[in-house]
Design goal:
The structure is a homodimer. Chain A has ten helices and 16 strands. By secondary structure, chain A is an alpha/beta fold. Chain A is globular.
Chain lengths: 304, 304
């Protein structure tokens, strides 16, 4: 059982407001932080959220607009001021590496840790317990959406089945429970003999800035949580098209078509003092809609 | 009578804290804003302080460390999003122009206004009503301190003197009051005939990051308000030397030697939750000490 929590660090579109900072989302998975986008001031939001600067961490940038990546500069510098020693990898579109390198040089600071930067491909990261995938989004000049998918977990353990095979409770049960075979009195016992079918892990999607698209419906299929560009209300649907963003209703329509459980609206235009209008419009389409607020935390549970 | 107010937008050193943002100070002089430094998140602090993005404005950067200049990127972008149309000049050390230009290119945004960038010289700006001067500070690789000095105002107007010369109250008095000569019934009347001596304007100094120095004592001579690097308490005086900053006590000693009226401590190390210690140490040396807080406003009055 690994805890999976999403912390919204910035939920405003393009410009900050009194209440909302620029785009950034921290996914806390056990001890690790997966940071999606790093808008200006993300380091301060992390301080306010109690997220340390020396934790195991990966950073994923959707695109090179300032409100999604300028916060990297202060974050990297402050990590070094805090004597970070764990290596860090930043994944993003072409151009990101040059942006980071030239600014580290211009601002004249040294890193205290090993920094790797990688251009995004379809499969971005493969770890023993999860994979992060990328998909082209519809936002110029080019942008990515991301998907965090946990690998299947072992099935439910049946103590009666283990007992009937004569396996004593204890260490051997634990090995079988976590999905590994054992050798017991000269016999190979596979986990399938004492557990139910493997259970799927959790899926979190993040659109970054984008118009809705068929490709993204496919990409976000079956997400437990989808965080989607909801910049505009219906009455500004023309602006959503013009600026290559989505309305809250479009986000909900895509979430419904993708069979998403919970939809989180975010990246709100600063023109809306109150986003009740956007929540209402999205809720007319999808039954499980949440509006992101800065420093809001959402836990993503294992599916039933 | 022009109102002169200082708004502290960020008062932390190097890294932000829950309570303090990175270095930036807005001097509101009448309708104009003179912004000194632009640490990360300055645009949000300006929103919180109610400072608009389309006001007449000049920006002065002390040095190219990230915590003093990274906020320029978001600020310039948001000014364009807000359709700023007034031209803007940014003054700073060599290297600043390249930093700004390469980031505008990397982040792919267009400016809606005319942006000029100028390398700092000794006399930075000369306007009809004030001058801004720069002086090398002691902070590597190189940094500047700034001084805003208003030009002298006309002397006190003596109505009895004007009456005794037969000049009728009204438009002619106004011209003389603002220090210009008039032609009255074929005679030239100079303002000196009806006013006291010209009165000096106000002086505000800002050190940026620096060790104290003799040069800076000279530069800040007679300031009505001096905002000075006060990163450390006495017990970290070694760090002040090592990192080329000042202690609050050193700031106060310099202020006293320069005959400064009010000293404002700022740029506090994030290690101090409570800066009462720094205020106490500075107050042992100088009688008029104020500790800056984010969004604090100070009005600078004309000298008596």
């Amino acid at each position: 059982m690994v805890q999976l929590k999403v912390v919204f660090l910035g939920t405003s579109s393009s410009v900050p407001t009194k209440r909302r900072g620029l785009s950034s989302i921290a996914v806390k998975r056990g001890a690790e932080i997966l940071l999606f986008d790093a808008g200006e001031c993300v380091q301060r939001a992390m301080i306010n959220a109690g997220l340390g600067l020396n934790r195991p961490m990966k950073i994923f940038i959707t695109h090179l607009h300032g409100d999604h990546c300028v916060g990297l500069l202060g974050l990297l510098q402050s990590m070094s001021m805090a004597q970070r020693d764990k290596s860090l990898t930043i994944y993003g579109p072409r151009g990101l590496q040059g942006f980071i390198k030239s600014n580290i040089k211009a601002l004249g600071f040294d890193l205290t840790f090993n920094l790797q930067m990688k251009n995004v491909r379809q499969k971005v990261v493969e770890e023993p317990e999860y994979t992060v995938y990328a998909c082209r989004a519809e936002h110029p000049p080019f942008a990515y959406a991301y998907l965090l998918e946990e690998k299947p977990r072992p099935g439910v353990f049946y103590p009666e089945a283990a007992k009937s095979l004569g396996i004593p409770e204890g260490r051997l049960w634990s090995i079988l429970q976590r999905g590994e075979a054992i050798n017991f009195q000269g016999r190979l016992i596979t986990p399938e003999q004492v557990t139910g079918p493997r259970r799927r892990g959790r899926k979190i999607g993040y659109s970054g800035d984008t118009r809705p698209s068929k490709k993204l419906i496919e990409f976000f299929k079956g997400c437990d949580l989808l965080i989607f560009d909801s910049t505009y209300a219906d009455r500004h649907a023309d602006k959503a098209k013009e600026n290559q963003h989505s309305t809250a209703r479009e986000a909900a329509t895509l979430a419904k078509e993708a069979g998403v459980k919970t939809l989180v609206l975010t990246h709100f235009s600063a023109r809306y003092d109150n986003i009740a209008e956007l929540v209402k419009e999205a809720s007319e389409v999808h039954g499980d809609v949440v509006a992101a607020e800065d420093l809001m935390e959402l836990e993503v549970k294992y599916p039933e």
